[in-house]
Write a structure and sequence with these properties.
The structure is a single chain. This protein has 437 residues and is an alpha/beta fold. It contains 13 helices and 19 strands. The strands form 4 sheets. It has an 11-stranded mixed sheet, with helices on both faces. Strands 18-17-16-19 form a 4-stranded mixed sheet. A hairpin with a 2-residue loop joins strand 14 and strand 15. The longest helix is centred in the first third of the chain and has 20 residues. It is globular, with a radius of gyration of 23 Å.
Length: 437
């Protein structure tokens, strides 16, 4: 259960009417701030700011997408898109955009931005049911990506004790396993792929993470499929809670363990789901594109109706238990993953990852599409659990892939720990790669 002290610190709205009142007050402020940006000059003049609480008027705000920002030079972004903070505020730090393609941007965050963002990050722990005095081990990268540093600050703000291990490039993975055994944290925080890497190494070292001290895992920064969640929970012997945020906005949502999906902090962010083609609103429960407007973390970067690239469903009113039940629920559709097309067969990255991770004999894997001679080939590299006989396991895995995906792969065995070392330097594990040039 959430501690009373935590809830008091998190400025939680009591009712959905409270959320509606906050949105009605903050949406005009967000538009006024954007009107100070040269980028938005002439694009917002048609709006009636007194009617923005009405869906039809808010829909007249133009949608902003990633391609629009990618077209800007650094000078055009900082001088033309960003705005000068209000008196008494100033830029405090920069957050790297989280995309894996294109040129990254570094978003300025002001003191007021960070105060508002801290509320969102702090709610994650309370929503996940973290005990207020828990000891936690953080394996998020602690560099220019905000999730690690902000999560650590939020945990300490709530009274938790924190080991700031960082990712494997900061603290080697074997040392992280040793620290978990010695310092006995009850909470592990990091990307799900790195949690799997640690479990892989633990298995090869003969360490039983499932019998260890961690009973709660809090993940973020990459999709968490059902298969990956089940594997993490089994290998660590822990509950797994996912969170959802974006660099353009902040930490926006977390799982409460009661409902399926993320409780979205709709008092801090206005969230919409639209048809990807028409960009018109879709009914609750219909898959569409996520659109986000920060209501408080916009003091320098005035994002309005940001098209994030996520495909989701949203339910505005979902009953639940506790103070977070006032928030709507967003569920990822897990349809943003790419596809391989090999010899005319489409293979979803997400479906393939789920399929492999459900194999209890496989510790870790990576997959490549390559060209051999004139033929496209699906090449799968696997690390197997200890005591698994390699030859029959590789033959069975290849046969299972053929049966499910109708494509004969090349399956190769890797020495234990190979992928963990390869992935250690990566922000997000490049598990599925097209190398056909």
């Amino acid at each position: 259960m959430t501690g009373a002290g935590q809830v008091a610190d998190l400025r939680l709205p009591r009712t959905r009417a409270d959320i509606a009142a906050i949105q009605a007050a903050r949406k005009p402020e967000a538009v006024r701030r954007a009107m100070r940006s040269a980028f938005f000059r002439g694009r917002l003049d048609h709006l009636d700011l007194d009617r923005l609480d009405r869906p039809e008027e808010w829909a007249r705000v133009p949608i902003l997408d990633k391609d629009m920002l990618r077209e800007l030079s650094d000078a055009e972004f900082y001088d033309g898109f960003c705005v000068t903070p209000d008196d008494g505020d100033a830029v405090s730090e920069f957050w790297r955009s989280g995309g894996t393609t294109g040129r990254p941007l570094f978003y300025p965050r002001t003191h007021r931005d960070l105060g508002a963002a801290m509320t969102g990050f702090s709610r994650v722990f309370a929503c996940a049911g973290t005990p207020p005095a828990a000891r936690a081990h953080c394996s998020f990268p602690l560099g220019i990506h905000p999730v690690g540093q902000m999560t650590v600050r939020a945990a300490e703000r709530l009274g938790m004790s924190m080991l700031m291990a960082g990712a494997g490039t900061t603290t080697p993975s074997l040392l992280q396993l040793e620290l978990i055994e010695r310092l006995m944290p009850s909470v592990w925080i990091g990307m799900s792929s790195y949690g799997l890497h640690l479990a892989n190494l633990a298995d090869q070292q003969g360490r039983d993470l499932a019998a260890g001290p961690v009973d709660l895992m809090i993940c973020s920064a990459e999709p968490l499929s059902a298969a990956k969640r089940e594997k993490l929970g089994r290998l660590w012997g822990a509950k797994v809670r996912d969170t959802f945020g974006m660099t353009e906005a902040g930490m926006m949502a977390a799982e409460d363990g009661v409902v399926d999906g993320f409780r979205v902090w709709s008092d801090l962010f206005h969230v919409e789901v639209v048809d990807p083609g028409t960009r018109e609103p879709v009914p609750d429960g219909t898959v569409g594109a996520l659109v986000v407007t920060p209501l408080f973390t916009n003091n320098c970067t005035p994002f309005l109706r940001w098209l994030s690239g996520d495909l989701v469903t949203m339910h505005r009113e979902v009953d639940g238990d506790g103070p977070f039940s006032v928030f709507p629920v967003v569920r990822h559709a897990h349809r943003t993953s790419g596809f391989f097309k090999i010899r005319g067969i489409n293979i979803s990255h997400g479906e393939f990852e789920d399929f492999v991770f459900r194999d209890a004999t496989v510790n870790d894997f990576k997959c490549e599409a390559v060209t051999v001679g004139d033929l496209d080939v699906l090449r799968v590299f696997v690390e197997l659990k200890r005591d698994v006989e390699p030859a029959p396991a590789l033959k069975r895995i290849a046969a299972d892939i053929k049966r499910v995906f109708e494509l004969t792969p090349e399956v190769e065995l890797l020495p234990a720990g190979t992928l963990a070392k390869e992935f250690e330097a990566a922000i997000k594990a490049p598990r599925i790669v097209d190398r056909r040039g």
